[in-house]
Each structure stands twice: as structure tokens, then as C-alpha cells.
Write a structure and sequence with these properties.
Layout (H helix, E strand, L loop, with lengths): L1 H51 L4 H41 L1 H16 L8 H14 L3 H16 L10 H11 L7 H9 L9 H23 L6 H24 L2 H29 L4 H9 L1 H25 L2 H15 L10 H6 L4 H15 L4 H11 L4 H11 L8 H24 L1
Length: 439
């Protein structure tokens, strides 16, 4: 017995030390990334001042930090307060009406396999369904409040409030993969810039974002040891795939290009407004006090927006340092040199700034997408590829700061690495599909 104790004691100690080391790595990951943005930005700026004579570089960076801090509060957090107030109120009406619970019951067999830590019929399931639905329609303003509400619901199941559960990581990675069926904002921007066919990136965007989403599911499933070959999971994923393929086939063969653009624009907003009407109608049928329910749910919008301000300011300022330090220019030139040396076609390289910026900043990547279209032409290969990049993934670092910050999660575990792998899959798919469609 003593021998057994002498064996178990050191083994237990070793296991505990290993666990603590793993936890420390998870805790330090975001710390190193955030600090690294500032340090790398400073080194890049210093080199440009010393060797390129750029005396304005430090001013651009410092001015950018103030601008980023202002954007985080004035352009994101405060406007989000209004949107959050509206949609949390609408969500509460839907919950009182039983509609959110109905959505949850329908998708529960699938979600119970990829979110095994979430009990069946838990409110988080319905909230996640609403978030994914809004994302599919390209309705970011509605998706964010639904997503924050879903993260809040998942946090009620979290025994360790400082780090995310497996379910929260799966939800976050699926969100960062940016699965969108109707890229309304991208097509609208192409129309503004005078594209001959604003909707010609519609199908490439669907393929790119689908690749990103599937990669995210696979990466997280492997890490969490989930069985994706389960019949229910395969049935749902197969059904979603068939629906996407069927929609693409219908759009290609039965709709003209202007009709595609019109359907995309009308369908997304029609579905969203129909959800609001459906919530209100069902609540009235159940004799729910609709206005009182709306006010009760809306009260949480302001507090959530205030809670996320420090996280947004910290992340967006760090991202601004990287952007204004000129790092992306060096990275793009490096990629061009590498691919040219390998004898590969480098026509896609000028569009890479959009892809590199996308995980960091949605507004930054949108600005680079617009710049690519203006510089190379809205209907050029680079201009179209930049649009596909914009539609093939989402803002991983921003979403981590926003969603985890809203519930006080400080340790990201493997959420960032899994999200970036999904983004990488979307970038690769975007390049391949752009060469197929536009080159």
C-alpha cells in the first residue's frame, strides 16, 4: 500500500503541475498577443524611422491610438447600446411567447452533439439559433445582440467564470467563421463603386465562408473529441450543405444577376422583420404583456455595452498600432517575394491586406477592401478577391474581446487559435474560388 501511495503521490503531483502549466499558457495567450501588437508595432516603426527616414510614423501610430479608443467607445459601444436595447427587448418577447424555446427544441438533437455541455431545451440553444440565423442573413446589427445574449446564457452553465467552457469556444469559433449566405453589405458596396455586376461575388463568398465554418467545426471537434460521424450530426451537416448547394444552383440557373441582388437585399430584411412580427403575434396569442416584456428585456442593453468598453478599447487600440505601423506592407511584400520565388502566380497578393486585417478589425478590412477596388478596379481580379476575403471569415480578435469581455472571461484557452485556423481555411478557399471564378 505504501508503495502504491509512493507511486500515486508523485504521479498526481506531476499531473497537477501539467494542468497548471496548461492553464497558465491559456491565461497568458491573449496577454502575449496583446503585448506583441504594441512591441512589434514599435519595432516596425523604429526601423522605418531609422532606415527609411519616415519621421511621421510615430505620430501616425499615436494619433491612431486616440482614434481607435474613440471608435471603440463612440462608434461601437455607444451605438451598440441602442441596438442591444432593441434586440434584447425583442428577444425577451420571443422567449415569453415560447418561440425561442420552439427553435431550441427543433435544433436540440444537433446541438446536443456539438454542444454536449448544454442541456437540452436550455435557453442558450435558442439564443444561439437566433444568432446564427442573423449571421446567415448578413444582419450584423441583429446578430451581435443575439450572440451576446447566447454567451450570457452559456456563462450560466460555466463553473469557472474566468475561462470559457467547451460550448462557449465552439459557439465563438462558429461565430468567427462568419457563415453568411447573403453578403448584403459587400454587394451594396460594390454597387456604390459602380460594379458591372455587384452580385458576382455572391457564390464565391458562400463557398469561402462555408469552408471557414466547416474548418472551425472540425478543429474544435477534434480538440473536444466530439464525434462528427454521428448520424444526427452528419444528417444536419449534410442537410445544410445540400441547402446551400441547392440555393446556389437555383440562383445560377433561374435568376438573373440583378434578380440575385434584389432577392438578397429583400429576403434578409424581410426575414428579420418577420421574426419581430412573429414574436409579437405569438406573444399576443399567449396574452403576454408585449410592451412590458420588451422593456424588461431591453434594460440589460446599456449595462452590457458599458461592460465591454474596456475590452474593446484595449483590443482596438492594439490593432490600430499594428495597422498604422505599416506591418501589413512588409508582410505583403514578403509573401510576394516568397510566392514569386516558388514560381507561383502572385496576382492574389495585392488583395491580401484585406485577408490579414479581417481577423483583427471589420472596419479596417472593409476599408482595405474598398481601397483594393478603387486602386485596381471594382471588377478587377484583386477587387473581387478582396470582396471574397471580406465575406469568407469574421473578426476573430474583435469577437473574442467583445463576447468574452461581455461575461468577464479572461482566459481564452484555444479559442483564438481555433478561430484563426478557421479564418485561414476561409482565406485559402477564397483564393482558390476566386481563381476559379474570376481569373
Amino acid at each position: 500500500m505504501a508503495g502504491l501511495h509512493s507511486f500515486i503521490g508523485p504521479a498526481y503531483t506531476l499531473a497537477a503541475q501539467s494542468w497548471l502549466c496548461t492553464e497558465n499558457r491559456h491565461f497568458m495567450a491573449l496577454n502575449y498577443i496583446w503585448s506583441g501588437f504594441f512591441i512589434v508595432g514599435f519595432i516596425a516603426a523604429l526601423l522605418q524611422w531609422l532606415f527609411l527616414g519616415d519621421t511621421e510614423i510615430f505620430k501616425r501610430i499615436v494619433d491612431g491610438t486616440f482614434d481607435s479608443a474613440k471608435i471603440a467607445v463612440m462608434d461601437i459601444a455607444l451605438p451598440l447600446a441602442g441596438v442591444m436595447t432593441l434586440w434584447l427587448g425583442i428577444m425577451n418577447v420571443g422567449e415569453r411567447a415560447g418561440v425561442v424555446d420552439w427553435f431550441a427544441r427543433i435544433i436540440a438533437p444537433f446541438f446536443s452533439r456539438i454542444f454536449p455541455g448544454v442541456p437540452r431545451n436550455h435557453p442558450a440553444t435558442g439564443h444561439m439559433v437566433m444568432n446564427f440565423s442573423a449571421n446567415l442573413l448578413g444582419l450584423d446589427n441583429a446578430a451581435t445582440p443575439f450572440g451576446l445574449k447566447a454567451m450570457e446564457s452559456l456563462q450560466t452553465l460555466n463553473p469557472n467564470k474566468d475561462e470559457p467552457t467547451d460550448a462557449q469556444i465552439m459557439f465563438l469559433v462558429l461565430h468567427t467563421s462568419g457563415l453568411t449566405l447573403i453578403p448584403v453589405a459587400i454587394m451594396a458596396q460594390r454597387a456604390i463603386l459602380g460594379a458591372a455586376d455587384p452580385s458576382d461575388v455572391f457564390i464565391p463568398c458562400i463557398i469561402g465562408t462555408y469552408a471557414s465554418t466547416m474548418a472551425g467545426i472540425i478543429v474544435v471537434a477534434i480538440r473536444q473529441r466530439l464525434n462528427l460521424f454521428n448520424g444526427v450530426v452528419m444528417g444536419w451537416l449534410g442537410g445544410i450543405t445540400a441547402a446551400i448547394v441547392g440555393m446556389v444552383y437555383y440562383f445560377i440557373n433561374y435568376l438573373t444577376k440583378p434578380e440575385i441582388e434584389l432577392v438578397s437585399k429583400v429576403a434578409s430584411n424581410l426575414v428579420l422583420f418577420s421574426i419581430i412580427i412573429g414574436f409579437i403575434t405569438m406573444a399576443l396569442r399567449k396574452k403576454v404583456n408585449v410592451y412590458e416584456s420588451f422593456i424588461e428585456g431591453a434594460k440589460g442593453g446599456i449595462q452590457t455595452s458599458i461592460t465591454i468598453i474596456p475590452y474593446l478599447v484595449g483590443m482596438l487600440v492594439a490593432i490600430g498600432v499594428i495597422r498604422n505601423s505599416g506591418i501589413f506592407g512588409f508582410v505583403v511584400n514578403g509573401f510576394n517575394w516568397i510566392f514569386a520565388g516558388l514560381g507561383l502566380n502572385t496576382d492574389f497578393v495585392p488583395a491580401l491586406p484585406t485577408a490579414l486585417m479581417k481577423p483583427l478589425s471589420g472596419s479596417g478590412s472593409k476599408a482595405m477592401m474598398i481601397d483594393a477596388m478603387k486602386t485596381y478596379g471594382v471588377d478587377s481580379f484583386v477587387g473581387r478577391l478582396a470582396c471574397v476575403f471580406q465575406g469568407s471569415a469574421d473578426t476573430t480578435f474583435y469577437i473574442v474581446a467583445l463576447y468574452f469581455g461581455s461575461v468577464g472571461i479572461k482566459r481564452t484557452r484555444y479559442a483564438i487559435s481555433a478561430g484563426l485556423l478557421a479564418d485561414f481555411a476561409g482565406i485559402v478557399a477564397a483564393i482558390l474560388v476566386a481563381y476559379l471564378f474570376f481569373h
